[in-house]
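Entry for the shared binder. Reason: the reviewer on the internal report wants the predicted structure included alongside the sequence.
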Amino acid sequence: MKNVEGKIVLITGAAMGMGKMYAERAVAEGASAVVLWDINRVALAETVDQLKHAEGTTEVHSYLVDVSDRNAIEANAALVLEQVGTPEILFNNAGVVRGNKYFWETDNVSDTEFTIKINTLAPMFIARAFLPAMIEGGKESRLINVASSAGFVGNPRMASYAASKWGAIGFSDSIRLEVDQAGFKNIKVTTVCPYYVKTGMFEGAKSGLMTPLLEPEDVVNEVWKGMRKGAPFVIMPKSVILNESIKGLMPTQLRDLLVGKVFGIHKTMDEFKGREGK
């Protein structure tokens, strides 16, 4: 896929951060329509206004959607299919981060449920709402599921988040295999697994050895290239792959020592604060 010109692009968590940047990319490349889903009414309105004033003929549609609510997902997906059409590019980008406490110290246990709903269940329900139409349409299409490098390695003070992203990776890669096995060669599924990104969501998180904090622009560039190519995974930085490689080679205690003490990963969430007004 050279670009998204003439295509319908839907992005969740589109009002700010990388979601907004994906929307700007889609408008710049001449998408026929960009569909923005977000729960932040004010930020969503501001982003829509900016995109509508950008050069080009891209239609901009916005929907106030709480993706933690399955009924809201299904209702708004039906509206998109009726009012705009079938998305050919679908970014499951919305996500939340909770951390800085050991799991048993968590004051609000609903945070765990909320994290799973947003990071794991929402991408599943959204994909289920749109995939049948994407398959029936037969057009060159992409499904991009934003997970995290935390889905590859357990880490103290982020048990719920790591669990949610492990689930997201398992789901996304299974869907990739399913559409291929079913013969739907027009659809490619990409699972995105970055280290901590400097968007504000990971405010206070620290880098580790060979795992620097990532610039949003760099992540968006790599994801966009991977999306167009239909790459199975976009993993950043590449050093994250090292942990996957040593899982089958090292005893668990030795790997814990390497990842935790040498690379310093197990201390990266000690001072986590997150986005103000989360």
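Summary line for the report: The helical segments are 17-28, 41-52, 70-83, 110-137, 159-181, 216-229, 239-247, 252-262.
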